[in-house]
Every structure is written in C-alpha cells, then in structure tokens.
TrEMBL record, chain A:
<dbReference type="InterPro" id="IPR018719">
    <property type="entry name" value="DUF2243_membrane"/>
</dbReference>
<feature type="transmembrane region" description="Helical">
    <location>
        <begin position="129"/>
        <end position="147"/>
    </location>
</feature>
<keyword id="KW-0472">Membrane</keyword>
<feature type="transmembrane region" description="Helical">
    <location>
        <begin position="55"/>
        <end position="76"/>
    </location>
</feature>
<feature type="transmembrane region" description="Helical">
    <location>
        <begin position="83"/>
        <end position="104"/>
    </location>
</feature>
<dbReference type="Pfam" id="PF10002">
    <property type="entry name" value="DUF2243"/>
</dbReference>
<keyword id="KW-1133">Transmembrane helix</keyword>
<protein>
    <submittedName>
        <fullName>DUF2243 domain-containing protein</fullName>
    </submittedName>
</protein>
<keyword id="KW-0812">Transmembrane</keyword>
From TrEMBL, chain B:
<feature type="transmembrane region" description="Helical">
    <location>
        <begin position="178"/>
        <end position="197"/>
    </location>
</feature>
<feature type="region of interest" description="Disordered">
    <location>
        <begin position="266"/>
        <end position="291"/>
    </location>
</feature>
<keyword id="KW-0812">Transmembrane</keyword>
<dbReference type="Pfam" id="PF09678">
    <property type="entry name" value="Caa3_CtaG"/>
</dbReference>
<keyword id="KW-1003">Cell membrane</keyword>
<keyword id="KW-0472">Membrane</keyword>
<keyword id="KW-1133">Transmembrane helix</keyword>
<dbReference type="InterPro" id="IPR019108">
    <property type="entry name" value="Caa3_assmbl_CtaG-rel"/>
</dbReference>
<protein>
    <submittedName>
        <fullName>Cytochrome c oxidase assembly protein</fullName>
    </submittedName>
</protein>
C-alpha cells in the first residue's frame, strides 16, 4: 500500500507518544490484573473495606486501560500504514505510561484510597517500596527517551 | 413464558430471512456475514430466555448472570452488526421505507438513540435491577420478568447501535463522545460487578453472589473486547489515508464486491535483487529489512 505523505513530523511524533502511553497504561494494568490478581492471588478482587471512591477509581481505570490497550494497537497500525512510526518516542511513551499507572496504583489507589494492598498477612513496606521505585524507574527511562526524541526528531 | 420468547425470536428470524429473500429476488445482494450475525444474536437471546439456562436462572445467580451477559451484551452486539434497519429499508416497499426513514429522523428516536441516553437506560436499568427489590420481585411476577428481559435486550441494542451501529443514523454522535460513553459504560458495569461481590441482591447467598459477580466482571470484559475492537476498526477504516470516496459508498454494498485474486501484501513481496524466499520466511517487512 503506498504510504501517504505525513503532514508534519511533530504530529506524527505526538501520535507515536500517544500510542505508546496508551499501550503502556494498558500493559501495566493488564500485568497487574493477570499476575497479582489472578495468578498470585495477592490482590483482592474486592476488599469489604474498600471505600466507594476506591471502587469508582478502580472501575474507571480498568475500563479506560482496557480501551487504551486496544486503541493504542490500532493507532500503531495506523502509524505503520502511514510509514510514520518512530521507535524512540513510542517506547518513551510506553515506559512513561506504564510507570505512571503503576505509581498512581501504588500510591493513590493502594495507600490513599485503600483499594487493596499488594500483599496481605506480611510486612507490606518492602513490597510498596519495590512497586513504587520500579514505577519511578520506568517514568525516568521514558522521560529520557522522550527528551532524546525531542532533541533529535526522526 | 419460554414459549413467548421463543415465538418472538422465531418471528424475528423469519422476518430477517424474508427481507434477505426480497432483496435477492430484486437482484440485490446481502452479505452472508450479516445474516449469520443475526442468527447468532437470536441464538444467544434464545439460550438466555428459553431452555435449561433460563430454567436454572430462577434459583442460580451464576446461571442468571450468564443469561444476563448473553441477553444484555452478546445478543445486542450481534443483532446490531446484522444491520436490520438497512435490510428493512432495502426490502420494504418504497412508501413503507420512507415512513421508516422518517421515523428514524424523528425527535424521540433521536433522543433515545443518543449514546448518553442509551447508556443511562442500560446502566441505570442494571443498577435498579440488582440494588433494589426488583431482582427478588422478578421471580414472583411473570410480567415483571418479561418486562425486565425486554428492557435489557432493548437497552443493550440501543447502546450498541449508538456506539458501533452500521445502520443509517442521521444524527450519529461524534467519535469522541462515543468513546467517552463507551469507557464510562464499561466502568459502570465493572463497578456494579464489584459492588455486587460485596453486596449480592436480596435472596442471593454470598457465595453465589461472589461467583456471579466475578462472572459479570470478567465475562463483561470479554464482550467489551469485541465492542472496543468493533469501535476501533471503524475508526481505522475511516482514517485510511488512501480512501477517497469516504462518503459516497454505502456502508453495506448492494452488489457483491469484485473478486480480487489474493496476493501477498506488498511489504512481504520480495523486491528486485533480493532472494524471493527470504522476506516471506523471516516475516520481516521491507522497512525493517532496510534499516
């Protein structure tokens, strides 16, 4: 299929970042659901002490991340179709999106809204630190890639 | 009561078949996948309202929830993808088709087919059913049972049609509005499922309530997957940079598309000077081979 001319590089970069961020968000949420909820059974499906705000936040994020996962893949297909895919901003967006979701989940949802904890019947502090430090590492790595993509536009 | 549902579904299948025959007799064409979608939708609705599953749903919350997923989500999605309104417009005699198209443009239809209205009707109905005394009352009053089932399938149809409908809709909401409503509805469905996990409807034992709620949550996600993919595919087709006659061709062709012999996609076809086998075997696109 002949590739259509790309209107502007910045628009293409923006769409690369958007596709990456959405997929990162989706992958982080998906990993959370499959590994921690279903395989390890560390997280609770529903904690009787979960306040309403936690339930609403979790529901909105679950729905949005499900939509984002699929939409980001269609966006990626569209970028490939237009020959406008650039790996650096896309991976930068993906890491930033995944880290951003994990940090939100680990701080606001687990701690402030008390949706559920990472693990029960153990000292949860090391788990919390690992969880949130990993999140920050992903955000920093993503930011580095995004800065590099901005300095050297593809 | 199963007979009432069975008769209605049979009539729906019969009418659709008659429509397809009428279109074909006039020399027109109707894609088989739409007919298959209609049949599958009716089958899903039949499984939920007649037979063993419907019988078990009276005392088993998990069976009830399976029926809810089939009747309220799977069946409407499949029925919408069958494009029954387009078929009716093509099969009906011209005066009747004009009346139908006028009715579709009328204000009440416009209001009720707006994604926000449809989502409120659907999600609101579910919250009322499971968090009030409506659920236990449904088992006592047969007419209420029928009314709830009709509402569930009708609201599901309206919502699916508003979000991913392929039938003509003169006032279709924008893609952004539809995406927001889609996510909000998925969230409302998921939140209700988690709420039911902790607070099952009156008369449902906690254990059964938990199994049913998890089924509602994960089963809902599975059907949402189909809904989201359908939504994104429509965007992908509309955003095709090589498509010029964007508004001219009807969504459902009236004549069979010309048969094009299948060829390997351009990026897999080997260019001049390369080994013809290597690109196809490694599965790499030409762009990746170049870099």
């Amino acid at each position: 299929m002949p590739a259509a001319p790309v209107r502007s590089t910045t628009a293409a970069t923006g769409r690369n970042v958007l596709s990456g961020v959405l997929l990162g968000l989706g992958v982080a949420a998906f990993a959370d659901e499959t590994i921690f909820h279903q395989l390890l059974h560390w997280h609770h499906f529903y904690d009787r002490s979960t306040p309403a705000i936690g339930l609403v936040s979790d529901g909105l994020f679950h729905a949005f991340s499900w939509f984002a996962t699929i939409a980001s893949l269609f966006l990626l297909a569209d970028l490939r179709r237009r020959a406008a895919f650039h790996a650096t901003p896309w991976w930068g967006g993906l890491l930033a999106g995944a880290g951003g979701f994990q940090l939100y989940d680990g701080t606001l949802q687990h701690k402030v809204m008390r949706l559920h904890q990472i693990r029960y019947h153990v000292d949860v502090a090391p788990y919390d630190w690992t969880w949130n430090i990993l999140a920050v590492v992903m955000i920093v790595a993503g930011a580095v890639l995004l800065a590099r993509a901005r300095r050297r536009p593809a | 009561m199963g007979y009432l549902f069975a008769a209605t579904l049979l009539a729906a299948g019969f009418s659709y078949g008659l429509g397809v025959l009428t279109v074909r007799r006039r020399g027109g064409w109707w894609p088989a996948r739409h007919s298959a979608s209609w049949a599958a939708g009716l089958a899903a609705a039949a499984a939920a309202t007649t037979g063993p599953l419907a019988g078990a749903a009276h005392h088993d919350f998990t069976a009830h929830m399976t029926g809810h997923l089939l009747l309220g989500m799977a069946a409407p999605l499949l029925l919408v993808l069958a494009a029954p309104v387009t078929l009716a417009l093509r099969a009906l005699p011209a005066p009747h088709a004009r009346t139908l198209s006028r009715a579709l443009r009328s204000r009440p239809v416009r209001v009720v087919t707006h994604p926000v209205t449809a989502a409120l009707l659907d999600a609101g109905g579910l919250w009322l059913l499971y968090t009030t005394d409506l659920y236990p009352a449904m088992a006592r009053h047969p007419w209420l049972h029928v009314a709830v089932h009709v509402h569930i399938v009708a609201a599901g149809y309206l919502l699916s049609a508003a979000l991913i409908g392929i039938d003509p809709d003169p006032h279709r909401a924008g893609r952004r509005t539809r995406a927001v409503v889609l996510v909000a509805f998925l969230a409302a469905h998921g939140i209700l499922a988690k709420y039911l996990y902790g607070h099952p409807p009156a008369g449902v034992l906690p254990g059964a309530g938990r199994t049913g709620a998890e089924l509602m949550y994960y089963g809902g996600d599975l059907i949402d997957l189909a809904l989201i993919v359908a939504f994104c595919r429509q965007w992908y087709a509309a955003a095709d940079p090589t498509r010029r006659d964007r508004n001219r061709t009807p969504r459902i062709p009236a004549v069979p598309p010309a048969r094009v012999p299948w060829r390997l996609p351009a990026e897999f076809r080997a260019g001049p000077g390369t080994d013809p086998g290597s690109a196809a075997v490694t599965g790499l696109s030409s762009a990746e081979l170049r870099s």
